[in-house]
Amino acid sequence: MELTWHGHSTWYVEVGDTTMLIDPFFDNPKTSLDPSDVEDPDFLLLTHAHQDHIAHAGEFTDATVAATPELCGFVADEMGLDDHVGGMGMNLGGTVECGDAYVTMHRADHTNGANTGYEYDVGMPAGFVISDTKPTQMADEDSTTFYHAGDTGLMTEMREVIGPYLEPDAAAVPIGDHFTMGPWQAAIAVDWLNVDHAFPMHYDTFPPIEQDPEDFAREVEAAGSSAEVHALEGDETFTLE
Predict the structure, then answer these.
(1) DSSP H or E stretch at residue 184
(2) Which residues, at least 6 apart from 240, have a Cβ–Cβ distance to it below 8 Å?
(3) pLDDT category, 116, cuts 50, 70, 90?
(4) Residues sharing a CB contact under 8 Å with residue 50, sequence separation 6 or more, in sequence order
(5) Can you name the residues that pair with 12 across neighbouring β-strands?
(6) What angle, 0 to 180 degrees and rounded to 10, lies between the N-to-C axes of helices 183-193 and 213-222?
(7) pLDDT digit string (tens) for 20-40?
(8) Domains detected in the chain
(9) Rounded alpha-carbon distances, angstroms, from residue 194 to 15, 17, 69, 81, 102
(10) Is 207 exposed, middle or buried (0-12, 13-18, 19+ CB in 10 A)?
């Protein structure tokens, strides 16, 4: 599994022959790319409707959208990603097969909203657990699984459900504070998730969320986690095996 961070919460994920782009927002200081520089993914995964997560969704018109039904409807109406794209409306707790990957949607503790001239119901904010095998109650040591937590605060579902049952090997967690978890709560999340690899995201984009990722690494160690922290450079790729 190839994981490429394009800054903020934007990730390009490759599982086998399947490609996925999560929360496309390229107006951030960590990336040197424009949306047109990015190869069109097979699937476009959207965690919620805030503009710093969907701003460039409309640039990827060949992708199948995977999001809550409400958010699928919003991007179809507002960004031209209408039904012929094949919007894959899903909801919290559901798993869908996306090419060579299995994508499970889980809740995120955050707000949601759409900044338009009239009100939309855009559904609940979410995170995604992406695996190369179908999740079951039986542990599979050969599976590779990545958890994109979305914009979230610390929540006990990480300890009680996502960690023990969805078994991510790696997690990307927001550390910016102010709007999401900060470094110390994100470190607790990493410990609860029991992952081998942790990636900070959603930081340094705007002044309120400026952070030193080394603080996050220190907090992860202090939490007693054995996870290796990878503070990727923008547009850097990590191979998860």
Answers:
(1) helix 183-193
(2) 1, 2, 3, 144, 146, 169, 170, 197
(3) low
(4) 112, 113, 151
(5) 4, 21
(6) 50
(7) 999 999 999 999 999 999 999
(8) 2-233 (3.60.15.10)
(9) 22, 28, 31, 37, 20
(10) exposed
